[in-house]
């Protein structure tokens, strides 16, 4: 058998004589091998009992060669020697010089007289058997006379029924328990302390219960530090959830009450609410501040001295000092000498028994945003420097969020101001539809709408939404709207116009940000949605196409609600056109509702529910005024946070049949005279004799050009609307152009003359060819308007 390094090994024969002696044995007992071999083992043992202690089982006392006593643990095992004789192998391991009972006694003495831990032994009747009188919670207050008393009598602020139940449970089951407990120790009955408590069952060797060991440690400061860290961490997630100054201030007081204060208020500079700030550094005490947030503990029921939105006047020196010196102010004891009789808050402070105050400036990047005030009323202890440090850190984090919200407010206000300058303030005059609209901007400065009069008494209705936000989105909206107003008078069909816009946006999105100063704004066009419709009051036909935008809602005069099946094309600058046009015929006095997507994406409700609400309101009273319908829809709308919308309602009109006259003419030069003749008769029948000469000349030139350069058949149409409109159609798609003829030229003056005589003119195309049109203003107020005609 091999010995472990450092262990002493010897072999005894059947008579107890040493026959082998290891080097470990030499080191342990000091005898050389030649001195130990042949000696009886009893000569190596100490046969005198120790006066201090007795050896434990498995231990023996040996005598070192120099005479001192050595306590060792002996392990004996049989070993077969030569010739079959029985030998004994003995392993000796040094034992501790201190006996276990002496260690146990020292340990018990340390725990019960010197340990900073609370240690108590409680018997089955919950009476103290032993306790540590040096523990922080009882030192100097509880003495040895506490032994034998009930634990609740000794520490009534710490021991309650719940603690007693836990001790009895451990005594009965023998299972240990650990938990946190809050209470007031005998040495500090005025304040709560937090303890980490462990309960252990004590039993005798027979397994009978002797009581319970209660070991506790005061972790109040550690717990307080952890609570403060948790408060700051939680506040980091709860403050600044929105980019709104008032909401952020309200989140600050919610985080502070009741964790820090019984009452908390936040007042900000009036300019901050409008996105502006003063210069960096302290501000004058006379600067106006406005109350934005107030909160009190629920059981206190405190009432604010200032309502939300009120201007706040500061008279307390602590508030003034915090503003002018830009530092947190601690008022541990808020007494009558510090309160001004002229301050509206004084009566409230006294009524709520607020006795301690902290005033912390809200500042970010050196710029003052406002003040936060924190009052303590129910907690008897005043605020201290640690409380002020914690509160200042909380307010510093909140101030950054308030400043972010302020900057967002400034940018949003600038974007909305730009938007207001770019959107129509009124619709241009036209007779095709009656319109009403609502534009709730909120965070959507890229929403827009348009009502664009077109040729042939038609009108285009447009609603769109930019993908982005901010001032760039507003600028991009203005550019896109300008493009639509440029393309619409060219007579493009809705699908063709959206295709042109898509190409425009795709081209801009490929530009680098350094290509031009406007490139960042133009990049906002990508992903814009648009619904484009054209209504013709003569045919009552409405053509529609959409790019990533919701389809409109149509309400008949009878109240039937319909949603036209308009294929959805990709948002502008995304996906792959073409777009598709759908044509529907509308009854007179039908209502067409166009809107941005946010109107049917309301406050967490799903889109189908929001659409149901929209259709219900639209169809509920089809004869209600459009303004009344707009108001009803706004009331029914439940907007998502800070999300605006555009709503455009159009009620269709029909141009009476006697206001339109049309003829089909062969492509023969001889019909020019016929065209002039029928035109003069129709103008005279409408009572527009003042326009007969110019109208005759315009029709003559347009018909002549159609015969000379176009293909038949030729159509002539006169429309009496807000202007007198002359239209000549042919089967050619050749684009006419205006020429400036020389004096010697025999022709080329037709369109030039028309441009001089007409109020406006143009060309639009269809699948069957083109139409050249010219409008003349009606000759004065005496001429009846189509909408006024009987």
Task: Please tell me about this protein's structure.
By secondary structure, this protein is an alpha+beta fold. The chain folds into 5 domains: 8-97, Beta-Lactamase (2-Layer Sandwich); 101-218, 2-Layer Sandwich (Beta-Lactamase), CATH 3.30.450.20; 243-411, 2-Layer Sandwich (Beta-Lactamase), CATH 3.30.450.40; 427-652, PPM-type phosphatase domain (Phosphatase 2c, domain 1, 4-Layer Sandwich), CATH 3.60.40.10; 657-777, Heat Shock Protein 90 (2-Layer Sandwich), CATH 3.30.565.10. The chain is built from 18 helices and 32 strands. Strands 13-12-11-16-15-14 form a 6-stranded antiparallel beta sheet, sandwiched between helices. Strands 18, 19, 20, 21, 24 and 25 form a 6-stranded mixed beta sheet that branches. It has a 5-stranded antiparallel beta sheet with strand order 2-1-5-4-3. A hairpin with a 5-residue loop joins strand 18 (447-453) and strand 19 (459-465). Helix 16 packs antiparallel against helix 17 (692-709) and helix 17 (692-709) packs antiparallel against helix 18. The protein is elongated. The N and C termini lie far apart (130 Å). 35% of the residues are buried.
What are the key terms here?
790 residues; Beta-Lactamase; 27% strand; elongated; disordered C terminus
């Amino acid at each position: 058998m091999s010995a472990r390094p450092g262990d002493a090994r010897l072999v005894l024969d059947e008579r107890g004589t040493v026959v082998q002696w290891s080097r470990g044995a030499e080191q342990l007992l000091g005898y050389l091998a030649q001195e130990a071999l042949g000696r009886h083992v009893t000569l190596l043992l100490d046969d005198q009992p120790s006066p201090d202690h007795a050896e434990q089982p498995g231990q023996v006392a040996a005598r070192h060669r120099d005479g001192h006593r050595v306590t060792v643990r002996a392990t004996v095992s049989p070993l077969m020697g030569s010739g079959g004789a029985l030998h004994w192998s003995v392993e000796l391991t040094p034992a501790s010089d201190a006996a276990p009972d002496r260690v146990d006694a020292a340990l018990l003495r340390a725990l019960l007289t010197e340990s900073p831990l609370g240690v108590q032994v409680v018997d089955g009747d919950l009476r103290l058997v032993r306790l540590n009188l040096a523990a922080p919670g009882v030192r100097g207050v509880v003495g040895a006379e506490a032994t034998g008393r009930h634990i609740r009598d000794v520490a009534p602020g710490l021991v309650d029924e719940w603690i007693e139940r836990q001790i009895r449970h451990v005594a009965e089951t023998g299972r240990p328990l650990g938990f946190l407990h809050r209470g007031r120790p005998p040495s500090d009955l005025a304040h709560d302390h937090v303890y980490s408590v462990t309960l252990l069952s004590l039993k005798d060797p027979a397994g009978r219960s002797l009581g319970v060991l209660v070991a506790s440690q005061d972790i109040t400061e550690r717990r307080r530090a952890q609570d403060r860290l948790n408060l700051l961490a939680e506040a980091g997630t709860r403050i600044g959830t929105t980019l709104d100054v008032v909401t952020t201030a309200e989140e600050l007081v919610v985080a502070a009450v009741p964790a820090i204060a019984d009452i908390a208020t936040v007042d900000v500079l009036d300019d901050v609410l409008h996105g502006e700030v003063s210069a960096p550094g302290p501000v004058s005490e006379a600067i106006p501040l406005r109350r934005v947030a107030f909160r009190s503990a629920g059981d206190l029921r405190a009432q604010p001295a200032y309502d939300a939105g009120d201007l706040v006047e500061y008279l307390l020196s602590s508030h003034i000092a915090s503003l002018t010196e830009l530092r947190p102010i601690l008022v541990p004891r808020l007494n009558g000498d510090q309160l001004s009789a002229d301050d509206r808050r004084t009566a409230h402070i006294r009524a709520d028994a607020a006795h301690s105050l902290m005033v912390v400036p809200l500042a970010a990047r050196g710029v003052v945003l406002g003040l936060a005030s924190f009052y303590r009323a129910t907690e008897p202890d005043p605020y201290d420097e640690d409380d002020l440090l914690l509160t200042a850190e909380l307010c510093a984090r909140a101030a950054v969020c308030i400043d972010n919200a302020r900057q967002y407010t400034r940018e949003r206000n600038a974007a909305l101001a730009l938007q207001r300058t770019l959107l129509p303030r009124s619709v241009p005059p036209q007779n095709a539809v009656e319109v009403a609209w609502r534009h709730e901007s909120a965070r959507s400065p890229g929403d827009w709408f348009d009502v664009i009069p077109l040729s042939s008494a038609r009108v285009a209705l447009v609603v769109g939404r930019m993908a982005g936000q901010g001032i760039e989105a507003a600028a991009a909206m203005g550019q896109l709207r300008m493009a639509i107003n440029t393309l619409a008078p060219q007579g493009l069909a809705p699908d063709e116009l959206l295709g042109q816009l898509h190409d425009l946006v795709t081209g801009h999105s490929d530009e680098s940000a350094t290509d031009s100063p406007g490139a960042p704004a133009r990049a906002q066009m990508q992903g814009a949605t648009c619904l484009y419709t054209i209504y013709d009051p003569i045919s009552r036909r409405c053509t529609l196409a959409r790019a990533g935008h919701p389809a409109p809602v149509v309400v008949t005069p009878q109240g039937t609600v319909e949603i036209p099946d308009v294929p959805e094309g990709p948002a502008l600058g995304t996906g792959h056109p073409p777009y598709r046009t759908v044509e529907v015929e509308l009854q007179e006095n039908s209502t067409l509702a166009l809107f941005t997507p946010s109107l049917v994406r309301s406050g967490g409700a799903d889109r189908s529910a929001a659409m149901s609400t929209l259709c219900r309101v639209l169809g509920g009273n089809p004869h209600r005024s459009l303004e009344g319908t707009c108001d009803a829809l706004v009331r029914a709308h439940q907007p998502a946070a800070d999300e605006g919308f555009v709503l455009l309602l159009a009620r269709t009109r029909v141009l009476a049949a006697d206001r339109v006259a049309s003829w089909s003419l062969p492509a023969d030069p001889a019909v020019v005279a016929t065209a002039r003749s029928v035109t003069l008769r129709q103008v005279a029948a409408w009572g527009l004799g003042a326009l007969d000469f110019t109208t005759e000349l315009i029709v003559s030139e347009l018909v002549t050009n159609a015969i000379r350069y176009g293909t038949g058949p030729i159509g002539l149409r006169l429309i009496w609307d807000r202007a007198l409109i002359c239209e000549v159609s042919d089967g050619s798609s050749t684009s006419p152009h205006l020429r400036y003829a020389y004096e010697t030229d025999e022709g080329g003056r037709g369109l030039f003359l028309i441009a001089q005589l007409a109020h406006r003119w143009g060309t639009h195309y269809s699948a069957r060819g083109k139409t050249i049109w010219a409008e003349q203003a009606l000759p004065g107020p005496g001429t009846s308007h189509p909408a006024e005609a009987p």
